[in-house]
Amino acid sequence: MNLSCSTRLSLRPLFPSQKLLCHFFSSNVLHSLYRRISQLGGPNVSVVPLLDQWVQEGRPVPKEELQRIIKELRVYKRFNHALEISQWMSDKRYIILSCGDIATRMNLIFRVHGLEQVENYFNNISTNMKGFTVYTALLNCYAHEKSVEKAEIVMQRMKDMGLVRGQLSYNIMINLYYKIEAYEKLDALMLEMEEKGIYFDQYTLSIRLSAYAAVSDIEGIDKIVKRMESDPQLVLNWNSYSIAANGYLKVGLLDKALAMVKKSEGLIDNAKKKNFAFDLLLKQYAEIGKKDELYRIWKLYKEKEKIYNKGYISMISSLLAFDDIEGAENIFEEWESRKLSYDFRVPNLLINAYGQKGLLAKAEALLNRGMTRGGQPSADSWYYLASGYLDNNQIPKALEAMKKAVAVCPPRWRPSKETLATCLEYLEGKGDTERADDFINSLRVQHIFPTSVHNRLLNYIKDGKSTSNENFQMEGNV
Predict the structure, then answer these.
(1) At what angle do helices 254-266 and 274-288 cross, to 10 degrees?
(2) How far, in whole angstroms, is CA 394 from its chain's centroid?
(3) Fewer Cβ neighbours under 10 Å: the N or C end of the chain?
(4) What is the pLDDT of residue 431?
(5) pLDDT at position 443, please?
């Protein structure tokens, strides 16, 4: 009988060299199996046949490797495949799931199938497995769904069972109340934590800081910042200072905001997502009005990190906040020279700026240039162009651009009522009911407004009535 490396070595104590060999073997298993999984198509392509084939080839599938693959797939939001592997582990390999495995599966079920399926799965879990980890996973699902009543019931059940002993459960509830803007409940929960001797961690205080910033409570922001800075057990991070800076910026306290941004910058080397941190620094220095600092951060950004499309979007939009079109053009040319994936959100910034300045020839040229380089204009691309045409009284061109915008618009995309009204008034003036009907019908098909509005607008056109904003009511859909 042929035994795998892991099987043979498990029969006797391992020396260091043998442990290294098994780690190497295990890592190769992970990379090879993960490579096959990563090459699958979209989420509708099942991973199960691939896993079955892997076993038929006589290859090992240790539980630890499957757990790592699931973790990696979750990072890349491939929840369907991760859930299939989790289910395959227990259904086909008869691997006994730990509480952590169960909690992970609950999260994946929530992502793929929704809350009802999570509840069904939870109800079928044996009582002895329903401990802190599993109940916390359920609480987290309710919090993500903003199902406040159910989250509160689970939280109380956990308290009754003696499962609430640290910050995690409280932080989930505090974050839920923050998201639904029930700020008055935050202090009560934090007081309860203090009474139970539960220490406020970075996350607890950051949520409270965000809540103070959301309501422009400067005294509250000052209080939390002071508390964080005076706590020797707390490891400060760049994001806390960034939250405080946003709160000060909201009420125009630029000097205080600048002091927070400087402190945030000082901690950026410890940031887990450095690109995100740099993008936010660019935005904040622009809002404060520090153009020299903007360029200094951009230089530092390029020295320390590989910059992707989002970074260029942040820099170009920050320069346009200073009305610095020439500077934005220079950064755009640098972006093009990098030959990254052609993300039309980058040229869209300049197309919009050109339209607002009446530089329509430049806007048209940039849009066409993007298409020749393999980019696909978005609804916003055409909409920005249409807005520029409207501002310069080129209504026929605006109408054509709007048609193109509507044709490629994503769900929930909404143009302004004023733009649509101007286009329809133009068709009304021409008496062109056929083109008006086509345009209005395209808006209905894309769910920009319902059939009732479609019929009403078309009647206005046919009857020669005005499609001004008084009559152009979109029932909250635009």
Answers:
(1) 160
(2) 37
(3) N
(4) 67
(5) 79
